[in-house]
Amino acid sequence: MKRLVVVLALVLAAALGPATAPAPARAQLRRDHQAPPGPRPHSVTITEFGAVGDGRTLNTVPFQNAVFYVRSFADKGGAQLYVPRGRWLTGSFNLTSHLTLYLEEGAVIVGAKDSSQWLIVEPLPSYGQGLDLPGPRHQSLISGYNLTDVVITGNNGVIDGQGLVWWQWLRSHELNHSRPNLLEFLYSEDIVISNLTFLNSPAWSIHPVYCSNVKVHNVTIKTSLDAPLTDGIVPDSCSNLCIEDSTISVSHEAISLKSGWDRYGISFGRPTSDIRISRVDLLSSSGAALAFGSEMSGGISDIHVNHLRIHDSSKGISFKTSPGRGGYIEDVVISEVQMENVHVGIEFTGNCSTHPDDSFDPSDLPAIDHVTMKNMAGTNISVAGVLSGIEGAPFTAICLSNLNFSMAAGSGPSSWSCSDVSGYSEAVFPEPCTELRDPSSSSSVCYSLASYSAIETA
Description:
The chain has seven helices and 26 strands. The N and C termini lie far apart (54 Å). It has a single domain, classed as Single-stranded right-handed beta-helix, Pectin lyase-like (Pectate Lyase C-like), CATH 2.160.20.10. Helix 1 crosses helix 2. It has helices at residues 2-16, 60-70, 164-171, 262-268, 441-444, 448-451, 453-457, and strands at residues 42-45, 54-58, 79-83, 86-90, 93-94, 99-103, 107-111, 120-121, 137-138, 142-145, 148-154, 157-160, 183-186, 189-199, 206-209, 212-222, 239-250, 255-257, 272-284, 288-292, 300-320, 328-349, 367-388, 395-407, 416-419, 421-429. It has a 20-stranded parallel β-sheet that branches. By secondary structure, the protein is mainly β. This is Polygalacturonase. Residues 1-21 form the signal peptide. Belongs to the glycosyl hydrolase 28 family. GO terms for molecular function: polygalacturonase activity. It comes from Zea mays (Maize).
């Protein structure tokens, strides 16, 4: 009761005017990926706000009230919102700055099956529409907007979106608005997501968009392998982001780097850059384990990926774009990859032709340049690579070094297919296309074959 009285007092204070106390200096998460903030000086438990963890009681208002209450500690070092063991049913709710959301072992935040419990918000400005339909979209189960210094962690607690009903609505064309994600941050910085399991997202599981200084560490993400268009982690127009030591098993794309869609992404103009991905286990039943695009109109660059295990997937690594996208994908280095039971190991395509509307300009041609893949081994691979660029705008400086794919039985003699691409290869088996065997390119084009070795082994 005391907490509820304080909440009411804070509501009145908010109505009278904003707080004027200065925010504390924020801890920065820079490229050295320093440790997240230590324990918060204040802590509350979700049950203090009337929440009931029986899996049946709707707890949207308790979560909203709890977050509103901990805002009062922003100038006092922040606070932790503790979620104990139980099944905590809720609709969508927002977070606040200087907050740690901590899920204890056995704690499950469960998304309501009633779509009315998921708020309706405007589409992202770099997309112009929702994921599935024109117009507004459902807000993610847990969201943060214009926040700093937020930690979502626990003792392997679970966030479960109960996505089956959403997948059924999508298949039967019964959606009124685009599906929600599980966790989404917009225009935020200094974010840590760790030690949690994400299950059954209606759409994407973790979606940082227009964010910087983000670390995703030691998470497990799973959806049904026949769920439609469910992605794992989607860094979108973000910078200085790290994904490491995680396991992702989804239907569509396990990790997908994006930066906006056609003219909306071009106009918004915020690239995805300075991304580090390391030590992750990826499975994508119908898409690519690691994907770039196809929505990449704001540009994607300075991407370093190493120590991947990709298995039982339709595609291993995919670069996707289309005329009308604009933008670029450049300065990408992927190394130390193990693939097992993958249909297409490497894909480049310039004909991923979906568009948000008919107002795209087909003369906005994207560029893919300076992509290096090295030290990769695969077993039971059906097709080593399908590389298809854009006529008149070929993909350039695609560099392959020390790749060895053991082909699946009956895969046929043609392991590679190439058009409108150019680059260089060395120590690649099966032997790649002639377009990737330009002997004059090794030093002038494939600058990254040697120059990043020290970085990746450091």
